[in-house]
Amino acid sequence: MLAVVIISIVLAYGFTFLNGMNDAANCIASVIATKALSPRHALIWAAFWQFAAAFIFPLTVAGTMGQGIIDQAVVTPHIILCALVGSVVWIFFCTKSGLPISASHALIGGLVGPVWFGFGWDHVISSGLFTIVAFIFLAPVIGIFMGFFLNCLIMLVFKKSNRLKSENAFKRMQLVTSAAFSLGFGGNDGQKTIGVVALLLSSYIAVNPDCAAASLLTAGPDVSEKLFTPDGMYVPMWLLMSSYATIVFGTIIGGRKVVRTLGDGISKLTPPQGFCAELSGALTLIITALGGIPVSTTHTITGSIIGTGLTRGAGTVKWATTKNIVGAWVLTIPATIIVSGFLYLAYCAVFF
User: What was the pLDDT predicted at 24?
Assistant: First the structure.
């Protein structure tokens, strides 16, 4: 079983890296589209603030991922392995296709599939799952309304200002909103794999309480190097730091294809619109991260970009691109439930 734990941890970091390539690119889509920063500088800027979130946000989202979706009593390392494989397969497919799907929801669907198929719906925490599903729709809707309202307000306040001067001013202010969005991303997406790996370690220790390897997996040199979620699930300091480092690495290495889709594929952005999109997205992510709701940065920023684009009329939004993105959203949780569920059944048939 220790081999399954090790493989699962490696896959978890692979998932985190892919999350950085796909979802984390959303942190810089607007700031690149408005040319407030070059792609290289934007990636470095976003990466810095994503990592800073590790020291700012409580582990509320990690707690939800580890304790708020599936029944801990039935979780085994085998379930986590199948969940991660199903999630990674779906994310890799969509990333290669340039679809900015939610890696978060892929992981959630991956967790639900093996438990549902293997033990029944009673062991899925439906209230937690339904809250997450609700925010599939609420997050972009909130982004649309906030982006539209903020952009209308900016247009009203600055309607008599010199256009070139105001755009240059908003480019500078985008540094602040882009940093805030990256912080919100770190506080939300940065914690998701942490919760799953903590759950994996807990399930392993439950059946191997005296194993020396279990102590090595979970403990730092002393208890001061452990952190805790609000519900008391412990998180080793090495897990916190390494998870954030991995997602930052994914942000720096890849994601440019998704950046192009979001930055130019939905609606052309001016600096004031980029500012409004990032601010509305950042507020949504920070509030949900503090509330322990694992929302999608993709959903949030996409809704915000659409909202700002609507201030120039519905015709300025590229609805064909938006339709493809929404289609990927709707499919993600059902697809990963099915993929990971059948993987678990096949895994059990072969090894048990």
Answer: 60
Residues 16, 250: Cα–Cα separation, whole Å: 8
Residues 6 or more apart from 346 whose CB is under 8 A from it? none
Q: Which two tokens stand for residue 317?
A: 């939004």
Q: Tell me the pLDDT tens digit for each residue of 326-343.
A: 666 678 889 899 999 999
Could you tell me how far CA 34 lies from the centroid of its own chain? 23
Query: Any bridge partners for residue 236, and if so which?
Result: 226
The helix/strand/coil state of 221 is coil
H-state helical runs in the chain: 2-22, 29-33, 39-52, 60-67, 77-96, 103-119, 126-157, 163-188, 192-207, 212-218, 237-253, 256-264, 271-290, 297-310, 319-351
> Using CA atoms, how far apart are residues 149 and 169, in angstroms rounded to an integer?
20
pTM: 0.85
∠ CA 139-142-145, rounded to 5°? 150
First to last CA, the chain: 13
Asked whether the predicted pLDDT for residue 100 surpasses 60, the reply is: no
